[in-house]
Structure formats: C-alpha cells, structure tokens
Design brief:
The protein folds into 2 domains: about 1-120, 2-Layer Sandwich (Phosphorylase Kinase, domain 1), CATH 3.30.200.20; about 125-185 and about 245-435, Transferase(Phosphotransferase), domain 1 (Orthogonal Bundle), CATH 1.10.510.10. The chain is about 40% helix and about 15% strand. It has helices at about 70-90, 125-130, 140-160, 205-235, 280-285, 290-305, 320-335, 340, 350, 370-375, 380-395, 405-410, 410-415, 420-435, and strands at about 5, 30, 35-45, 50-55, 60-65, 100-110, 110-120, 165, 175, 255, 265. The model is unreliable at about 200-210 and about 230-240 (pLDDT under 50). It binds adenosine-5'-triphosphate and magnesium ion (MG).
Length: about 425
C-alpha cells in the first residue's frame, strides 16, 4: 500500500475528507481532552492521516494517527491496536526495533468517530533515505546497520509473538530521527504551539495556520544552522563532491512500522498480501504463506538499500500479466523455480505449464544476481561474494529453505566489515596522516 509524507509530491486528496473518511485537523486542534495538540501533518496512508502532536502532560512530541471513520477502517484500527499492544507490551526495554504504541482513544468529529493511535515520534522512512542518496545505493556498512535493526524486529515479531508483518518495504521502515536536522523538532529544540493564535479561527484560519507553519519552519532552520555550525566546529563535516550526498551525522537506527496489515502466523487472513515489488512467489502462486514471506520482502529491501534500485519492478505486457512478468524476473535473477514449487499453487496453472515453464514468456534473459552486482552496480568481487552469500538464501523459491531472521542475524556478512568499507577507512586514515 502506498502512503506519503507531508514533503511528498502527492497528497491524500480532499475528497476523502467526508463522512466515513479522514478527520480534518487544524494546527493547535486538541485531542483526548486536551492531552494532545496538533502541530503539523507528518504523513498519510489509505487508512489515516498522521500528525505531529505535542503531548502536553509530558512536554514531548508524538505521532498521532487518526483513522478514517467508516466501520471497515474502525475494524482494522482495532486489529492494529491489538497487534501493536502486544508488540509494545512484550518489549518493555524498547530494544526490538518496532514502533511503540503509547496510547489510543476515539475522537468524534464532523465525519464520524475516529480511532486514534499515539506513537513515539520517529523520523524519515528508508525510502526517503534512498531518494536522498539519489538512488545510488548506500555504503554496505550502513546497509548492515539497517539490516540488523530490521532483522531484530522480524526475529522478535516472528519467534516471540507469532506475527507476520506482510507489508515490509522501505516505506514502512522509519529512521529513529530525520535525515536533515532542520526537520527534527526535538533535536532542533523547536517550541511547540500550545494554543490557537488570538482571533485565529475568525481571522481566516488557513492564513493563520500558514503563518504558524512558516514560523515553525523558520525556527527549525535557525536551530539546524546552529547544529551544523557546531558539528563543523567539531570537525565532523567532510567535504562533499557535487553529486555525492553527505551521510555523516545521519542516525541509521531504524524501526519497523505500519502493522495495519499484520496478522497472527496461525491465522493468515488475506490471500493477497505485500506490496507488489516485495511480494513473495508463494503469494503470487497462492501456495500459502508464513513468516518466510516477510523474509522474501526483507531480501528485496536489502537489495534496494545496497543498489538504490528495486529488485523486481514487474510490468504488464501485451501478451502477459504483471504476475507472469514478476515470476520471469525472479527466475532471470535467481534461476529456474523448482517444478514442484512452480506447479504447486492454486494459481500455478495461470502461469506455468506442467513442466514448470512459463506459458507466455518463453525466453528468459538470465542475469544472475552476482553478475548484476559486479557488472551493473560495480561491486568489488569480494563484496559481491560476501553479500550474495547472505542474500541469495533469503530469496530461495522454497519458503521453508529460507533462513529465519534469527539465522540471518548470525551470518558472517553482518558481523564483519566489507572490503569497500575497509578501503574507505584506510584512505580516510591516510588522508588524516598527511594533514
Ligand atoms: P498505509 O496506506 O501505508 O497502510 P496507513 O494509513 O496505515 O498507511 P501509516 O503507514 O501507519 O498509515 O502512516 C502513514 C505515514 O505517516 C507514514 O508513511 C509516515 O510518513 C508517517 N508516520 C507514521 N508513523 C509515524 C511515526 N511514528 N513517526 C513519524 N512519522 C510517522
Ligand atoms: Mg504505510
């Protein structure tokens, strides 16, 4: 499912602000008897809008998710709250890299009654980080840091709680902070808005809101300039070339969010799960799925972090469907699907003949993952060897053969430095020596 953040190029669409739909929020609106005060919109999804709010009793910022009000959205909010409560309850020390639910309540407005969830405030999504890095692929040591967090979360939800996320992707992994400190209200110590400005409501609310938002942004910019100046004075800023983005100072710790589609492992309830590009073969073929479907999405996400490009971006063709193209792309990169797996699903007959060959895409252009990484993405032979050794088993067509999150956490790739990182470190060290 797609969703956006306030800085994205799409918005949630005004026509969904109607009975059964979104609740319209204005800056300084209060919730739960004045406990939460709306500051600005952080993002939105098909089910909700998410607002930065100030939690007055504890003087801190939180993320307030306000669900659409129609019964099906209320139902899914109740389900999400159940899952989130389990996640938070069993992780008292906040070490499992999953979003924390702090509170929940109902709020009645002109469009109906809305379930509201209060979360700890997190930063930008990993998708935004990939875009920020101009789709170039992150250094492998950063990829490893992110992988450790995602795997910690998956191991926790799979093994300890028996939950399948079912929609793991870069958009649903949030950094604990923002990429740019000027957007981080906590780090930049921006003052909260606690009351509506005088005469605000009668005095053309929109204009007042804009003025407040401008002021907030200005204050954040000033604070960010202070942070950057302080960092520079500590010698923390490295010179950046024209098309390289500086990743220094970014906190790469992250958490898995959006449990709106998650399910209990013993009760998978939807046939079609996962966002297209991260969808596992057993889901396309409808052969039944389990925790290992999340591992497939994890594999696709890791590839995207390391290369900046989606692993599979299938398209519909004149003579074949998007599903068939997807299966073809998988086999081009990972080899032929074992016949038993290919023909074993409820939908297998739509795509495969009885020999396990695709019906409508007869000629596959083989391009193994290792060749792609060396030829197209210019990874060193060493880096490819170690990385592929980690990644390829996660993308096994046989779900039961995929390693678990727990096993992945033990893999040597996560526990030693990559050659490219060692070289970078070496050259930084020698630069320092010559200064
Ligand atoms: P979807 O259509 O993806 O199911 P949804 O309505 O369930 O969306 P979420 O995905 O939970 O909503 O949140 C929507 C957006 O709000 C996220 O993509 C993110 O930009 C922002 N967001 C959500 N939770 C937080 C948080 N804790 N801190 C900061 N931003 C958040
Ligand atoms: Mg989402």
């Amino acid at each position: 499912m797609s969703s956006g953040s306030s800085s994205g190029d799409e918005d949630e669409g005004m026509d969904s602000y109607r009975k059964g739909g979104y609740h319209a929020v204005r800056v300084a609106d209060t919730f739960a008897g004045g406990r939460y005060i709306a500051q600005r919109k952080l993002g939105w999804g098909h089910f909700s809008t998410v607002w930065l709010a100030y939690y007055h009793p504890q003087l801190k910022y939180v993320a307030l998710k306000i669900q659409k009000s129609a019964p099906e959205f209320a139902q899914s909010a109740i389900h999400e709250i159940n899952i989130l409560s389990a996640l938070t309850q069993h992780d008292p020390d906040n070490r499992k890299c999953v979003i924390r639910l702090l509170d929940h309540f109902k709020h009645t407005g002109p469009n109906g009654q809305h379930y509201c969830m209060v979360f700890e405030l997190l930063g930008d999504s990993i998708l935004k980080l990939i875009k920020y890095n101009r789709y170039k692929g992150l250094p492998l040591n950063k990829v490893k840091d992110i992988c450790r967090c995602i795997l910690t979360a998956l191991d926790y939800i799979h093994r300890q709680l028996g939950i399948i996320h079912t929609d793991l992707k870069p958009e649903n992994i949030l950094l604990v902070s923002t990429i740019n400190p000027s957007n981080d209200l906590v780090r930049s110590k921006t003052c909260p808005i606690v009351s509506k400005p005088e005469g605000g409501v009668n005095n053309g609310g929109g204009l007042v809101v804009n003025a407040i938002e401008r002021k907030l942004k200005q204050r954040a910019r000033q604070a960010a300039a202070r942070i950057t100046a302080r960092r520079a004075s500590l010698g923390g800023v490295r010179p950046v070339t024209k098309d390289d983005r500086c990743l220094d100072g970014i906190d790469f710790r992250c958490k898995v969010v959006d449990f709106g589609n998650a399910c209990w492992g013993n009760r998978p309830y939807a046939d079609e799960i996962q966002t297209r590009q991260y969808r596992a073969p057993e889901v396309i073929l409808q052969s039944g799925y389990s925790y290992s479907a999340d591992m497939w999405s994890f594999g696709c996400t890791v590839f995207e972090l390391a290369t900046g490009e989606m692993m599979f971006a299938p398209k519909t063709g004149q003579s074949f469907s998007q599903d068939e193209d997807h299966l073809a792309l998988m086999m081009e990169m990972l080899g032929k699907m074992p016949r038993k797996i290919a023909v074993g699903g409820l939908r297998s007959k739509d795509y495969f003949d009885r020999y396990g060959d695709l019906k409508r895409i007869r000629r596959l252009k083989h391009c193994p993952l290792t060749c792609l990484l060396t030829d197209k993405f210019k990874f060193s032979v060493h880096d490819v060897r170690d990385f592929a050794d980690f990644l390829i088993p996660i993308l096994d067509f046989v779900p039961e053969k995929r390693p678990t999150a727990q096993q992945c956490l033990q893999h040597p790739w996560l526990n030693k430095s990559s050659e490219s990182d060692v070289q970078k470190l070496d050259s930084q060290m020698s630069e320092l020596q010559f200064k």
